[in-house]
Amino acid sequence: MYLVTADEMQRMDRATIESFGIPGRVLMENAGRGATAFFLEAIYRHHPGAVGIAAGRGNNGGDGFVMARYLHQKGIPATVFLLSERNRIKGDAAANLKLLETMGVPVVEMADAAAFEARKPLMRHQHTWIDAILGTGLSSDVRGYFRTAIDFINEQDRPVFAVDIASGLNADTGQICGVCIQAAATATFGFAKVGHLSYPGRALTGQLKVIEIGIPPSVAAGVGCRQHLITPGALKNDIPERSAAAHKGHTGHLLVLAGSPGKTGAAAMTATTAMRAGVGLVTLGIPKSLNLVLETLVTEVMTVGLSETAEGAMDESAYEAVMSLIKDKRCLAMGPGIGTAKPTGKLLGRLIEKSPVPMVIDADGLNLIASKPSVLSKRQSPIVLTPHPGEMARLSGHSTAEIQSDRIGHARSFAERYQVHLLLKGAATIIAQPDGTVFVNATGNPGMAAGGMGDVLTGLIAGLITQGMETSAAARAGAYLHGSAADRIARKKAPVGYLATEVMDTTPEAMNELLSGGDNLPWPRLDQLSYSTDPI
After folding, report:
1. Distance (Å, rounded) from C-alpha 311 to C-alpha 25?
2. Reported confidence tier of residue 535, pLDDT bands at 50, 70, 90
3. Which residues on adjacent β-strands are paired with residue 209?
4. Considering just the CA atoms, what is the radius of gyration of the chain in Å?
5. Which domains are delineated in the chain?
6. How far is Cα 270 from Cα 30, in angstroms, rounded to an integer?
7. pLDDT per residue over 437-450, tens digit each?
8. N or C: which end of the chain has fewer CB within 10 A?
9. What distance in Å separates the CA atoms of residue 303 and residue 286, rounded to the nearest whole number?
10. From CA 323, how far away is CA 356, in angstroms rounded?
């Protein structure tokens, strides 16, 4: 499923109008009609009464005019509060405004701050609000009485329904442009926008429905959208089908290099999660002084003690042993709990250059790379990096705040520059491919903000690669299943307080649900997103 930027959506609209001859007024009518149906379902049936439509002078306001007309036709008291002079409304929006006046729908003109202030008593009598002030093209801070209007609507503590996007929200990044409407529900047109699923935008969007407005599929494909929402139906087709005659030799052998004194749990969770993901065999390489500890912690996993420094960190001298171990493996996972000793970093650098199999690198492995990320350009095989925002900041040289302000942009830039698969963890995890294509994951919940979750994710992705999944597909499926397993626990037990090992142990259930359900799954964190062509 496409996730589009404001520019991509505008190009789709323009191509639909210019190349297919579908009038813009038809698209606006479809948008307003579909949005009205969703407003009645999501908001009005729970909060009947007077509806205020706050409308700007652009096409977003025009969509609001169409909604006002349909509400009026159904006998619902609707008043348009126009944040503009009437004579400044142009094009399709002007045509729909004229229809309102012909039908006798109240339109209150508030062209400046003084007029807005004078109409506040009337505005306070509205039971619900429709936000049609600013559309998806906003990129700078909201100013003037538009800002005043947004603040006023938020202060009313009434349910707000956003048209296309909450006014004040950047459609490309999900960042707030100064102030933003807090919507209870949003009807967006054609495709969901990147900002709908990127925080803080996701929290300001509310229940989201995508309204089909008549964009031909060939137009959507021709725009070249490079952002996609991960859907269970697509993932189901990526996971290799297991033969009834399969044995452990068929399902792959994974090598994990992890652990250091005080961080043996990370190694154990990474290796065991790979088994939970369905891998046939896992060999865990650890500093030799930790071998007895890991043999006690993991039962199904084989362990190999490797040469270590005087401080107990994995040493560069383990290189030959690792290259020997890797000969019959399908994937190498490295980094969880491995520490940041310089000899370990040298070992990692050599393995990046020489590993004949895909690598998944996380945690301390990322911190070791951060001092010299150019080593990634020397890779021999595909690499998946799984940083959280802090690790991403160290890798890229940007601040954590900068990373979070444009997660997709930073993930894409790094993946393209170093030709790696980059999974940027966090709310709405981002998976960026070397060609710049980006996938957004919507599973997961705040209870995952706990130690060990990243180790589980590393084992899951490496386990899927080992079973034969293509590298990028494994990263997408790993992110989805990781969040889905956590969502199952949050629903059954509690939203916080569960452990990474519980997510690890729930992985088979999440995978079974995916394989048996496909597109019919109740998307745990996207139960608020639906797709509709329903008329009112």
Report:
1. 72
2. very low
3. 187, 530
4. 26
5. 3-225 (3.40.50.10260), 232-239+250-520 (3.40.1190.20)
6. 50
7. 999 999 999 999 99
8. N
9. 7
10. 9
